[in-house]
Each structure stands twice: as C-alpha cells, then as structure tokens.
Amino acid sequence: MRVKGLWKGTVELRGGKNVLTRSFHQAPLKVAKPFSGDRGELLLYLMDASPGLFNGDAQEIECTLEKGAHLYLTNQSSCKLHPSPCAVESRQIQKFHIKDRAVLEYFPEPLVPFQDAGHIGETIVHMESGGQAILGEIIAPGRAGCGEIFRYRKITSQFSVYWDGKWTVWDSLALEPDHWNSLKGIMEDYTHIGTLWVLSEKITKEHIKIIWGSLEPCNQGPVYAGTSLLSKNGLVIRMLGQSVWELQALMHNCWNLIRHELLGKPAFQIRK
C-alpha cells in the first residue's frame, strides 16, 4: 500500500506575533503544537507517524509565509528511506512561498537511505522581493552500523527558486552508487553531503568572504566545503564530511554567521 503524507500551512504576523493561521495535514504527517522562539520567530516541528518512506510513498509539504512572518521549521528525526524493490521511488515535494519581509529557516534532519532505496526529492521556493530564506539539507550514505554505505539505488535532490515569478535557480543532484566506477573518484574519503541555501537580496560578495573565512580552516580537517554566489539574490554552501554531526556543526556555524549578517540575531539550538 502506498501512503501519501501531506501538510499545508500558513504563517502570519498578527499584532507583532507570528501565528500559524492555517494548518491542514493528512496522515502520517502532522505538526506539533507551535511555540515562539526567544527572538519572536515561530518554531514548528513536522512529525511523521510512519517508520519512513517506502517505495511509492509520497510526502508533500507546502507552506506560505505572509508579509513580515518568521518561521523556523524542522522535523523530529531523520527521514528513513526504505528499500524500493520496484521501479517506483519514494518522493518528497516541498513548496515554500515567502512574501515581502518574511523569513523562512528550514533545517530538516538528514535523509538516511537503506540498501536498495530509491528516492526523489524536490524543493521549490517562491520568493517575493524583501523575503529571505535559509534552507539546509544533509544526505547520509546509509546505515553505517549495518554496513550499508552507498548501498542505495538512487537519490535525486532537485532545488529551484523563483524570484517574483522569475525562475532564477535550478540545481539537481543525482546519486547512483552502482554507476560509479570508483568511489574515490566521486567522493574521495567523504561519505556525507550537506547543502545550505541562503536566499536574500542583501547577499553580496562580502558575505562570501566572511563565510569562506570560517570554511577555510575546516578544509584542513575531516570536512571539505566551499561557497559561491547564486545568479541572483543568494549564495550556496556545499559540504562534504564523514559524519552527520560534523556537517551539522559546520552548518550551524554558517547559519550563525548568516543570521548575524542578515537578521542581526544569533543562531540557536533546538532540542529534539
């Protein structure tokens, strides 16, 4: 049996407070009771009552941030991608609509593919002038404790951005370990992949210099990372590492730098 989880929500700024004004869910997806962060942002946890995604399963998330709203969105735990013995992959579709002066910060837990898993992920971000978004993603190589390193069939991650209706960013990452002639030639000794997207009209070359200053020392250790400007209004940071916690620590450090630069606020820790 194939399962489709669904969540659609809207966050608005009312009376100086961020409020979840609309929320619809379809099992196994749902959201925990929202609460306010120390700086006034709305904190929201997505929850999945299932053990993960099986072949043919789908999850769809669609969230709108109205003018001036601020949302930090995450989920409760890593997304487990179970085997797909048939040709139908599991799917995740994430759509975000960021209005003027709204801020989205989205940091889901890592994707963890099991042996023979197949998965397609797609994230679409619609930005209005004045809006800002920071989105992170980490892809693990599999269940290391079970010896399932790069034993999945295929993972595809697609990311696109529209500014005021104009398509400005398209990124597609396709990982097919069975087609790799040499793991060394693709990943060297790294196993985990991280990506941090920063979408804002405030981003300049100076931000690249600031971020690179924090990334360069890391490249002497177990993490390798780099950053570059997008074609319009933003930057991207790519990371390679050997564990989830290494990439999460580096991503948090970059998030802290970016938050100070764009929002004048420090990053914070979320308990799970």
TrEMBL record:
<comment type="similarity">
    <text>Belongs to the UreD family.</text>
</comment>
<dbReference type="InterPro" id="IPR002669">
    <property type="entry name" value="UreD"/>
</dbReference>
<dbReference type="Pfam" id="PF01774">
    <property type="entry name" value="UreD"/>
</dbReference>
<dbReference type="GO" id="GO:0005737">
    <property type="term" value="C:cytoplasm"/>
</dbReference>
<protein>
    <recommendedName>
        <fullName>Urease accessory protein UreD</fullName>
    </recommendedName>
</protein>
<dbReference type="GO" id="GO:0016151">
    <property type="term" value="F:nickel cation binding"/>
</dbReference>
<keyword id="KW-0143">Chaperone</keyword>
<keyword id="KW-0996">Nickel insertion</keyword>
<comment type="function">
    <text>Required for maturation of urease via the functional incorporation of the urease nickel metallocenter.</text>
</comment>
<keyword id="KW-0963">Cytoplasm</keyword>
<comment type="subunit">
    <text>UreD, UreF and UreG form a complex that acts as a GTP-hydrolysis-dependent molecular chaperone, activating the urease apoprotein by helping to assemble the nickel containing metallocenter of UreC. The UreE protein probably delivers the nickel.</text>
</comment>
